[in-house]
Amino acid sequence: MSTLLFGALLIGAFAIMVMLQGDPLSDYRRLFLTSSAGVRDEDTFFVTFFGVSSLLFTSGNSSILTDGYFSRPGKQKLFLSKIAPNPTVIKECLDRVDMAKKGLEAVVAMHSHFDHAMDSPEICRLTGAKLVGSSTTAFIGRGWNLSESQIQTITDDDEVVRFDNPDGSAWELLFVRTEHIELPSLLGFIAGNESPILTDPLVPPVRMGAYPVGDCYSLYITRIFKNGTKRTILVQGSAGYVPNLLSRPHLPKVDVVFLGVGGLGKKPVEYQEGYWREVVEATGAKLVIPVHWDDFTRPLTKPLQPPSRLLDRFDRTMTFLEEKANSTGVKIRLMDSWVKVALFDEVDSILSRKDM
Ligand SMILES: *[C@@H]1O[C@H](CO)[C@@H](O)[C@H](O)[C@H]1NC(C)=O
Ligand SMILES: *[C@@H]1O[C@H](CO)[C@@H](O)[C@H](O)[C@H]1NC(C)=O
Ligand SMILES: *[C@@H]1O[C@H](CO)[C@@H](O)[C@H](O)[C@H]1NC(C)=O
Ligand SMILES: *[C@@H]1O[C@H](CO)[C@@H](O)[C@H](O)[C@H]1NC(C)=O
């Protein structure tokens, strides 16, 4: 067979493979949580996902946003030029969820990379929310002229920040310093893993690597309802971990972990096992919702999709998580962007169901 013919056959086979592959999420559609927008109980704890680790938690007239990231510049801009918050896109996204009426108390940056912290000051400016995070995140706020009264810097280990609502309900945010996932060296370098912490305001536009990781947190979010009942969830923005950190006895146990999985699919299985042990097992979570699995160079007006296999292996991540789920009884669920879920209604109904 001539080389030419062989090449043509190979390209044909590849094209057919891509065609057959179709929806890259088809194997996982059964795991997606559905909208509970119809639920009207005003105390209900709702969560809405916007890709990466952007999560909006709402209860009553009060909300907390982690890692608000809406600008999502495309690949060319991200890799080859400078980036900045896009106020038009941010405003459109906030309007789409009626953020102005959500009583946004805080925008929390889990660490200071662009996809976690870049948009935060603009969201705070538009909503009056406080920017809460590391000293590096604070300098990102100052670079966007956010006033000091709107910036709260986490300085202590296991620091708790509390927001009280007039009806007696409250939020408690507990910040545990952890490690960011180690990225392959070139990717780590361009993503800002090697950059030192900020000691001066960061004024965009800048290259993405100008957003250093800064301090990186595991964030416990506790909702204290007005009747005194508490429910706690954990947000793990990056798939890094520190052994024996989250199993310390004074830390709360949680029902749900929003588990950052960016880069996890490229890690050896021993690393994945360690991550599960230290973040899921150690916290007692019964439901795991993977986050940071999407290609963050696609705008939020398009459906979420896993990134290219060159960057991550979402399929390997999901196989690992489903195997763990099968052997431990912990449940795995995914969220689509913009879908508003009554989280604990889901938790209670999933955990009482035996079949899935
Ligand atoms: C307290 O309020 C929450 C939110 O409405 C509710 O889910 C929970 O069942 C209540 N707890 C008790 C003990 O009534
Ligand atoms: C939320 O605000 C509305 C309008 O101000 C008020 O009627 C309602 O009671 C508030 N709900 C809670 C849970 O605070
Ligand atoms: C911040 O203030 C400086 C100096 O007044 C101004 O040049 C800059 O445009 C402001 N940036 C933003 C995002 O408003
Ligand atoms: C997990 O269990 C389900 C149901 O028994 C099965 O369909 C699936 O293939 C299993 N997945 C893995 C990765 O073991």
Automatic annotation (TrEMBL):
Residue ranges constituting the Metallo-beta-lactamase domain according to the UniProt record: 48-184
Pfam families: Lactamase_B
Endpoints of the signal sequence: 1-15
InterPro entries: Metallo-B-lactamas, RibonucZ/Hydroxyglut_hydro, UPF0173_UPF0282_UlaG_hydrolase
Keywords: Signal
UniProt protein name: Metallo-beta-lactamase domain-containing protein
Species of origin: Spizellomyces punctatus (strain DAOM BR117)
